[in-house]
């Protein structure tokens, strides 16, 4: 009702850390919501992790039937708490996400959500920590920690690192160059579109790249 009252185009559902015990009830919720959305011309999209053995309870196949779009959260390849430092979203991770999701969902219903953020990894001895920063904050971090970087074909990103005594700083940089690489790979598939996390973290040029992708 609230969506109708304010004239929203759609509703995006993002329930994470869903237990296997809750999966059937969640799916029924999506089914019932899809009927209400369709009857009121409201687009329904549902967020999903990149398919892995431990999250198959999300039942992407059924969502691909009842929802308008299934959005893949194509980030957090390495996340806060990861046992090792690494990319937030390497190009192979995005490719895997598309192809694996495509086993359950029609391509024109798949939307890939890309990150507008990157992680600074700090290793001190055996201690590993990280913090997420917006794309717009990367240059300041490079200067602050005097980091040098080079392009890494394997991840489709610029990789930066620096040492300060016994402390190692690392970044697999999300920038316009890496963003464009992922969009270019996505162009090889007939997908429903692109999304991103999150608004306000991106440089202005990101929207130009998205516009070009959508117009191809």
What is the secondary structure topology, with strand pairs?
Layout: H1 2-6, E1 10-13, H2 23-39, E2 43-48, H3 60-66, E3 69-73, H4 91-101, E4 110-115, E5 117-124, E6 127-134, H5 138-144, E7 148-152, E8 157-164, E9 167-173, H6 176-186, E10 193-197, H7 205-215
Parallel strand pairs: 1-2, 2-3, 3-4, 4-10
Antiparallel strand pairs: 5-6, 5-9, 7-8, 8-9
Describe the structure.
The protein has helices at 2-6, 23-39, 60-66, 91-101, 138-144, 176-186, 205-215, and strands at residues 10-13, 43-48, 69-73, 110-115, 117-124, 127-134, 148-152, 157-164, 167-173, 193-197. With 216 residues, it is α/β, with parallel strands linked by helices. It has a five-stranded parallel β-sheet with strand order 1-2-3-4-10, covered by helices on one side. Strands 6-5-9-8-7 form a five-stranded antiparallel β-sheet. The longest helix is centred in the N-terminal third of the chain and has 17 residues, at 23-39.
Report, as a whole number of angstroms, the end-to-end distance: 36 Å
Count of helical regions: 7
Overall number of strands: 10
The 3D shape can be described as globular
- Strand arrangement, major sheet: 1-2-3-4-10
The low-confidence parts are none
Gyration radius over CA: 19 Å
DSSP strand content: 25-35%
What order do the helices and strands follow? HEHEHEHEEEHEEEHEH
Structural class: alpha/beta
Residue-averaged pLDDT, rounded? 97
Describe the largest sheet: 5 strands, parallel
Amount of helix: 25-40%
């Amino acid at each position: 009702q609230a969506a109708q009252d304010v004239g929203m185009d759609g509703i995006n559902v993002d329930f994470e850390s869903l237990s296997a015990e809750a999966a059937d009830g969640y799916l029924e919720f999506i089914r019932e919501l899809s009927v209400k959305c369709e009857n009121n011309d409201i687009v329904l999209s549902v967020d999903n992790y990149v398919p892995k053995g431990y999250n198959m309870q999300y039942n992407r196949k059924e969502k691909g039937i009842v929802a308008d779009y299934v959005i893949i959260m194509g980030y957090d390849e390495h996340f806060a708490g990861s046992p090792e430092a690494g990319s937030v979203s390497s190009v192979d991770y995005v490719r895997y996400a598309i192809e694996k999701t495509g086993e359950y969902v029609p391509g024109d219903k798949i939307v890939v959500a890309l990150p507008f953020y990157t992680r600074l990894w700090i290793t001190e001895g055996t201690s590993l920590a990280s913090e997420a920063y917006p794309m717009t904050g990367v240059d300041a971090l490079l200067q602050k920690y005097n980091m040098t970087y080079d392009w890494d074909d394997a991840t489709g990103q610029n990789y930066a690192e620096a040492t300060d005594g016994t402390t190692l700083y690392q970044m697999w940089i999300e920038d316009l160059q890496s963003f464009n690489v992922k969009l270019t790979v996505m162009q090889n598939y007939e997908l429903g579109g692109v999304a991103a996390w999150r608004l306000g973290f991106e440089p202005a040029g990101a929207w130009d790249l998205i516009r070009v992708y959508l117009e191809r």
